[in-house]
Sequence to fold (290 residues):
Amino acid sequence: MWVLRIENVDTIPLRLVGDESLLSLEVTPPSPARAKPVHCMLPPEMRPSSDEDNGVVLPPQLSYVETFDPRLYCFEARQDRALTAGARVTARFGFALPSSRAAPPFVVSSLSAVPDRSSLHEIASDPFTLPDRPRPPVASPVPAVVNDPPLLVSTPPRLDCSSFRELTIPVTVRNTTARSIHILLRPETIGLVATGPFGTTRCQWSVSPSAIPELFTSLPPNASATTEVLVSSLCPAEFFDRTGLYALRALVDTRRVSGEPVGIRSFSGEVESTSATWVRMRTISKPGMR
Fold:
């Protein structure tokens, strides 16, 4: 997490639009020497278009502070790769310059009619360099028996979603063994571990799936199959009642179903995806919440 800090260095109180979604980042990668800056900002539907809401009175010498995840702003793969040690970053906070410099919206404005004070559409930080990430301590090796799972579960690295009702995640299963595996790969056998602003929850069908022969998938060695899961069919909408960044980790859980009753020797177990999918939720389903 990064920290956004805006300090009033003036001698009078100022009005600030206190909304971290007005932040944008200009990131210049450390190499090559003439690398073009990468611009990171939220989509228009996640940014306010007016300065009428979220007004904060900032007294002299006091600061407005928020924490944020830069991956929410630098969400695309190219943007995320730019956030590396040695990159130069300039943070900007505010609105795009309108056709008239005297026209709102203003991110900073004076609360009194002081002649030498002007309202600002945008403010910017001094450039700063991203430091090296601290290395974890080296632990003594501990002998362990590692059993590689017969199936490898994967999901996309990121999904940019317009709303929770439209959020669909593809879950791919690959056979890592030297023999064919039968599996019931259906939304009913997929679970999700979702992490977001409200903590972590596990989403899964409450009803056991049916063992129908036609629904089983045969995976030859090194073959893969994919099923699409509508997240709203598994997870409660209340958990996604805020725009922002979420992490989804998929689980393939076939412990509640067996192919034996229909004459199929199928995989029975639970396998978790190797990495999480980052989801940027751009809007929410319920009105009146951000």
The domain at 151-281 is CATH 2.60.40 (Immunoglobulin-like). The mean pLDDT is 89. The first helix runs from residue 70 to 73. The chain has two domains: 2-129, 151-281.
